[in-house]
Fold these 3 entries.
Entry 1:
Amino acid sequence: MKTRRHAKILELIKEHDIDTQDELLNYLRESGFDVTQATVSRDIKELRLVKTLSRTGNYKYSTGGDIGSDMSSKFYSLFSDSVLSVEAAQNLIVIKCMNGMAQAVCAAMDAAYPQHFVGTLAGDDTIFIVCREEASALETQEEFRKLINR
């Protein structure tokens, strides 16, 4: 039973951005597992789950072993601490950063979003991003603005 429950927990945290034990408890109960908060707490400890930053800027449970997830978490933290504004213009995005931070943010963005953009270019306080189409630039602009307004 415990093995099945652990497998279900790993499946749930992969599918949903779960940020509290209570939320995980509810998902498990909806999935047919009769568990208590203490059991969920032990499971989290046994599975060595950690809280990482999600794309929305909120925390969520994860296994912590995924390098891509770790890089994404670092990117979101660096981005929210360093970026001042994000503006899309046709298929381009211009990101204004604190002085000296653009190259670090751009390098983290390239690692967190491999092959997501046609190209990126960073100066001292400005990043230029080339997207394939205007819709992609607008969508990315909104996603990035949420990160700086969290």
Note: The chain has two domains: 2-65, 70-148.
Entry 2:
Amino acid sequence: MCLCLSMMPCLQAQTFSPWTKGAFETQAYRNLFVEMGYSERDVETKLQSVFNEVFYGPNKVYFEVGDSMGYVSDIKNHDARTEGMSYGMMIAVQMDKKDIFDRLWRWSKKYMQHQEGPREGYFAWSCKTDGTRNAEGAASDGELYFITALLFASNRWGNDTGINYKAEAQHILNCTMPREVDMPAPRRFGQTQTEVKNEKQKIFLIDPETQLITFTPDGFGQGFTDPSYHIPAFYEVWAKWADDGRADYWMGCAAKSRAFLHRAINPQTGLNPDLCQYDGSEMQGWGGRRNGGNNFRYDSWRVPMNIALDYEWSCADREWQQQYGETIQNFFYSQGVNDFMDQYRTDGTLPEEGEILGAGGFRKLRHSIGLVATTAAASMMCSHPKSKEFVDALWNAQHVPFEDGYFDAYYDGLLRLFAFMHLSGRYRVIFPEK
């Protein structure tokens, strides 16, 4: 009946078959765009176009410095962040862009990485674009991506082309093991910076008791976590190729991270909070309900795509992940594929004005392309026909300014590119070159 009404195939009724084995085992990848009816030529053209927008177009976020360095900038905040720098490195190694990778790493090492002192090996999470540090402390997701991208670079290009990528990754890993240092104590409410005294404290990237990644590797941020920092498959990469003698430990971290996500995500909506306790419960006080930290918002957008990545590469938790993918897509489908907002309470209700996290000088709920991208990437886990509508929405979305002038070339742009890489089968486990 459908073919009588239209020459187009009845794709709206089509179901898809998520794979049952991951790329660590198969070294195979789905091109979901092609499965859904797009031509291979169009998919490759689109992917290259999105890549060029981020790295070379008029709204690019990548800038070269001299003959050997470059940085990725959060344009709206006028800085370079470990998040964007490490994302840029991951994209570069995935796309086999060695020059971009090396430039970003050199800039990160020169300006961001602490070469000595209590934070040795860690990276200052934010710098001005001239390299001046805005902060000394690290944000743990930067280290997570730096290490994984460096190991992939080692596998792809070797370690004798000017940068010993594996040695750099091993140095970071060694520095992030728990160690006692003398550094400023966590700043208490009402205390000025000059009143803060140095004290002995133990710092670590991974909480030794729970084996879960910290929000920040310091006295304050080590007390809780960010669900969007959880990418269990990255630990499997470390276990396979870091050669640091901790393979069993990293595989344990992967298992603990997967179990944590079960606890942190609302089973009815699929939504997760921006921050939470290690047991998955809501934050209390700072970062909690009062300022919206228990809501699904900017950081949270990454979780659907992160879980999709773990599913694609490892498939170790596939039954829960497939259920999760359809749960979160069902929620956003109920809000309208082309209309859902970019911030919600985890029960699916909209936040009050005081809970809305602002960006770029605006405090407003939007239908943001970054979230359009990550909900589309979740289609890799789904079998229901709704998943095609999310993929089509990403394919057709234009990354342009909103009517009020707000435009995020950086976060929206990078998430959009990552999603196109996932859905085209171009976000891969990079095995050592033979």
Note: The chain has 15 helices and six strands.
Entry 3:
Amino acid sequence: MKILNLKKLACITAIVLAPFIAFAGGTNSTSEGKASTSQSNDPDSGMKEGDMGVVGVGQSSKQDTVMVDDATLTTNVKNALKADPTLSKLHIKTEVSDGVVTLTGVASDKRWTARATTVANSVKGVKSVNNNMTIGHK
């Protein structure tokens, strides 16, 4: 098998396994003396329908509103997008104004634009995300 084919296989494997790794969890530390399956009985545990449960690197969930300046927010969103294995190869331009993130760039599939929105929205301090990415090839 050629090296190029091995690289393609590794990329495909990473893309296929990424959602499973993202959802892999430990135990629920809030239960007292009970075994846990890391599942919550709360029907709205902060996730929206279709949300991939992504939390940016070094970020927490958006349950508490935090004021972050636009320059810091831009850096945090860019870092979160680069940290995501499915988005790290895309050239996504990030602009922030008053906590509103605007994403531009090209993705090969609608799934990647949706994922970019989810990742950007997971960064603490982001008020909303305008995804102006297009579908196509560079």
Note: The beta strands are 93-97, 100-104, 106-107, 128-131, 134-135.
